[in-house]
Specification:
Length: 212
């Protein structure tokens, strides 16, 4: 599988530890250094299942042949590119027949929820109808709408087959340490992220497109 915009490799390493062959693409030098150090610290059996490629997610065609992967992940990457359609098209070209494209995006239809839950009423009012927001570093990044991403997936021949809400309850709260409280939170999130109306107000959306 291919993980585009792998960040510090947390997700890719978890998948490699689970027995999957994972290729990660990342362009940020600090993230690359962190993920390479993390991979180097793993046992040989896990290191052999991980490949790290320096590159931009929009240039996957430079590194790989079309149809090279049965699963392509891009979790959070669309938020940070000015032309998300070009990135999506590149991801779609990497999918083999029967493959799955997994995206995580910020939910533009719920941008008012986070400031509202923090009693930031000015921020909540400004977020209605917006397509961008400020991330933790203060940078302006993109948010996306379910219908629009669904249409884009259909346009690259990987139509939407399933979608889920991510961080329905926990966006404006601190995540507890490992233990019973965290287990209960994860159980509540997992259930809410799959049912209406809760998943539609999640701070992020997990969308899966399938290639015939």
């Amino acid at each position: 599988m291919l993980d585009v915009g792998m960040g510090r490799g947390t997700q890719a390493l978890r998948l490699a530890r689970g027995g999957h062959e994972v290729t990660g693409v990342e362009r940020d030098p600090d993230h690359l250094a962190a993920v390479r150090a993390a991979v180097a610290a793993e046992p040989e059996g896990i290191r052999s299942r991980m490949r790290v490629v320096e590159g931009d997610g929009r240039d996957t065609g430079v590194h790989f042949r079309p149809g090279s992967f049965d699963v392509v992940l891009c979790h959070g990457g669309l938020m940070h590119v000015e032309e998300p359609d070009a990135l999506l098209a590149g991801l779609g070209r990497m999918l083999a027949p029967g493959g799955l494209l997994s995206l995580v995006v910020r939910n533009a239809d719920a941008l008012a929820m986070r400031p509202g839950l923090r009693a930031d009423w000015g921020g909540a009012l400004a977020a209605f109808g917006a397509d961008t927001y400020r991330d933790e570093s203060g940078a302006e990044v993109r948010a996306h709408r379910l219908d629009a991403v669904g249409q884009a997936l259909a346009g690259i021949a990987a139509p939407l087959v399933a979608w889920y809400g991510v961080r329905v309850f926990s966006e404006a709260t601190e995540i507890p340490e490992a233990g019973p409280e965290l287990d209960a939170l994860l159980a509540a999130e997992a259930r809410a992220g799959r049912v209406e109306p809760y998943r539609r107000v999640a701070s992020m959306l997990h969308l899966c497109g399938g290639r015939d």
